[in-house]
Specification:
Length: about 120
């Protein structure tokens, strides 16, 4: 099974993304299954990298990830209620969400690398 996932990783990933997009508009209650499957496939594909990660790196990544999720929840919930109150079109709400997630992932990557450099000194 692991060899199958290693060889067919890209096809499985694109299938899950396509399925997730369809379920997002049709049946959101099943979206968590697709998201969990996507994370599971990524974890299996990059199992060697995960295994080679040091304990320090894991602590830094988890220590930054939890506050990041808390901040994103607060930002997205408050801005979503603001946009709904002011009748912002739906496509602009999705565009805003994509921009916020991109900025958050970029900041997370930068902060992780920055803290790794500091911790090594």
């Amino acid at each position: 099974m692991l060899k199958f996932i290693d060889t067919q990783y890209e096809k499985i990933t694109w299938l899950l993304i396509f399925l997730g997009v369809i379920l997002f508009f049709i049946a959101k209650e099943y979206l968590s299954i697709v998201l969990f499957s996507f994370l599971l496939i990524k974890a299996v594909k990059f199992r060697d990298t995960i295994r080679a990660t040091s304990f320090r790196q894991l602590v830094i990544q988890i220590g930054l990830f939890i506050p990041l999720i808390v901040m994103l929840v607060i930002i997205i919930l408050t801005s979503a209620s603001f946009m709904k109150e002011h009748h912002i079109p739906v496509f602009l709400r999705y565009a805003y969400l994509i921009v916020v997630l991109f900025i958050a992932s970029s900041c997370y990557g930068w902060a992780t690398n920055f803290l790794m450099k500091i911790w090594k000194k």
